Amino acid sequence: MTNIIAVTACPSGVAHTYMAAEAIERAAKAKGWDCKVETQGSIGLENELTAEDVAAADIVILTKDIGIKFEERFKGKMTVRVGISDAVKRADAIMEKIAAHLKNTAVTD
């Protein structure tokens, strides 16, 4: 099973941070994938990703409109950077692109 983790943050740290998190989780679950999203909003980090979450992740999705705190955690992981509005409005399309990429990079026997 594909395991997705994400971090969402927006310049104002309010609505879009949480709307993007919900959209990513919904789109990943619709594909049958596990997904955990950390939000870095105006009230700080919520649903913080653990070292175990990061280690188990196949793909990391980061919003790119504002710097993500502790981004070094994801070094060496396949990372997708998306705009916060794309995460909100186009999460399904983002998951389709990830699925196509995973299919093309899958190791076959």
From TrEMBL:
| Pfam families attached to this UniProt entry | PTS_IIB
* InterPro entries assigned: Bacterial_PTS_Sugar_Transport (IPR050864), PTS_EIIB-like_sf (IPR036095), PTS_EIIB_2 (IPR013011), PTS_EIIB_2/3 (IPR003501), PTS_IIB_fruc (IPR003353)
SUPFAM superfamilies tied to this protein: PTS system IIB component-like
Q: Which reaction does it catalyse?
A: D-fructose(out) + N(pros)-phospho-L-histidyl-[protein] = D-fructose 1-phosphate(in) + L-histidyl-[protein]
Task: Supply the alphabetized keyword list.
Answer: Kinase, Phosphoprotein, Phosphotransferase system, Sugar transport, Transferase, Transport
* Enzyme category, top tier: transferase
Q: Where are the transmembrane segments?
A: none
Which GO molecular function annotation, any one, does this entry have? transferase activity
PTS EIIB type-2 domain residues are: 4-100
Task: List its EC numbers.
Answer: 2.7.1.202
Q: Which NCBIfam families does the record associate with it?
A: FRU (TIGR00829), PRK10474.1 (NF007783)
Q: What is this protein called?
A: protein-N(pi)-phosphohistidine--D-fructose phosphotransferase
User: What organism does this protein naturally occur in?
Assistant: Rahnella inusitata
